[in-house]
Design a protein that fits this description.
Length: 431
């Protein structure tokens, strides 16, 4: 069920008409639905429950660590934290966000290939659940930093299972040629090395093979490879207490049909259970996930107002007040986002390229869309909840959009619009 739907010809977020929100909060505006967020998280939580994997169950339970990079607004993190979510972070800044949002640092895992010493220190200080270490030099640095802090760092090694996620090359991360994780063939040696370090405690294994996957077959293939590695590690006396399969499940932008989360988790848990019972006499092994897009992607839209219509010989342009700095995905990946009029008109539609005011030909949001619009009308760029605001920039000294969270018939302003003065507040004139 979509939480963005038409009522009397006007697109609503839950019970609120989007044109009223634009009037109140201005444009461009990111609008999120709390009910959609909740439903998307529940798809994961319910599948865990169905498989008997409650948070601290005898089987090791499950932990869903929402991937903060997909949408890091404090209100979004707060909603998910209250639902029991953990968090997958990639910077010290994201950790501070989680804490500011009331999230539990003991449910935080720290991914990323380039963790700095300060970030490690901060994470140790907050006693995060686990560092997802991506290289041997990183594990040595972490050992040092933990030693200085008088702590032991819990780690899992991110292994690169060399599985083709069959997604856009920019968001495919599990192949040999990607910069992420340690090569599958090197993983055993890396684990031996890590296990011998005094301030490191090996607790898990993880992988993440890519994003916007429609099929779960590559994920299950990666799972099989991870399981194989756990068996080898166990035979060398290195015990693994959790396996983290990453995020990656896709969403519908256009007509894609991603595997339902419940089906994927059902198949994954069935494999894990059969193996765990056979090989480990039912010893506890926690299963973790790092979903981002499938939680928040379809829970948000970007509202934008049509400024000008330019009707040309070969093309018509709808120049809107949002741009590539607000939603970078089309310019960066040629990503397709649905464009819906907020208020439906009876007039004849024309074909438009929807473009922003930024001085780049790459500044487009949608190509060749049939739209019946006039200047001043509002458009909604659909499925913009994930990697929308978090990838926004201030290019062309454009303040980033405001953000609103809708909860039934209430709208909460969860981030104010940036003013130009905010953008140069940290700058000064030399001399
Ligand atoms: N875990 C790790 C280690 C990741 O690198 C990512 C995403 C996730 C989890 C969450 O993946 P998801 O469930 O959202 O697929 N900016 C791109 C997507 C980049 C994904 C980066 N990593 C886009 O707009 O499509």
């Amino acid at each position: 069920m979509s939480h963005f739907s038409y009522r009397d010809g006007v697109l609503h977020a839950e019970n609120l008409p989007l044109n009223a929100l634009a009037k109140q909060f201005g444009s461009p505006l990111y609008v999120y639905s709390k009910a959609a967020l909740t439903a998307n998280f529940s798809a994961y939580a319910d599948a865990c429950k169905k498989a008997g994997r409650t948070e601290n169950g005898d089987n090791g339970g499950a932990l869903i660590c929402y991937s903060v990079k997909s949408n890091s607004n404090l209100a979004v993190l707060n909603v998910l934290g209250k639902l029991g979510s953990g968090f997958d972070i990639v910077s010290g800044g994201e950790l501070l966000r989680v804490i500011a949002a009331g999230g539990d640092p003991r449910k935080v895992i720290f991914s990323g290939v380039g963790k700095g010493r300060d970030e490690m220190r901060l994470a140790l200080q907050h006693d995060i659940l686990c560092f997802n270490v991506e290289s041997i030099p990183e594990v040595h640095r972490l050992n040092e930093v933990a030693g200085e802090a008088g702590k032991r760092a819990r780690i899992s090694l991110r292994v690169n299972p060399n599985v083709d996620a069959k997604t856009h090359p920019y968001i495919s991360t599990g192949l040999k040629e990607n910069k992420f994780g340690v090569a599958y063939e090197d993983a055993l040696a890396c684990y031996r090395d890590a296990a011998a370090l005094p301030n490191i405690e090996v607790v898990g294994i993880d992988c993440h093979i890519g994003s916007q996957l429609l099929d779960d077959a590559p994920l299950l293939e990666a799972l099989d490879k991870v399981i194989e590695l756990i068996d080898q590690l166990e035979s060398e006396g290195i015990a693994i207490h959790h396996l983290d399969i990453g995020g990656g499940i896709g969403i519908t932008y256009d007509d894609e049909q991603p595997v339902p989360v419940g089906d994927y988790l059902g198949r994954l848990f069935a494999r894990v259970e059969a193996w765990r019972k056979e090989k480990y006499a039912g010893r506890a092994i926690k299963v973790m996930f790092e979903p981002g897009r499938s939680i928040v992607g379809n829970a948000g839209v970007l509202l934008t107002e049509v400024q000008y219509l330019k009707h040309g010989e070969t093309k018509n342009f709808a120049v809107v007040d949002a741009a590539m700095n607000d939603l970078m995905r089309p310019a960066l990946y040629e990503a397709w986002h649905g464009v819906q009029v907020v208020q439906q008109r009876q007039d004849a539609a024309r074909t438009y390229d929807v473009v922003g005011p930024v001085c780049e030909s790459g500044d487009w949001l949608a190509h060749s869309r049939e739209l019946a619009i006039e200047p001043g009308d509002l458009l909604a760029l659909m499925s913009a909840g994930a990697y929308g605001m978090t990838m926004a920039s201030n290019y062309n000294t454009r303040g980033r959009a405001a953000e609103v969270l809708v909860d039934g018939d209430k709208a909460h302003l969860i981030r104010k619009r940036e003013n130009p003065a905010d953008l140069f507040a940290l700058e000064s004139i030399a001399g």
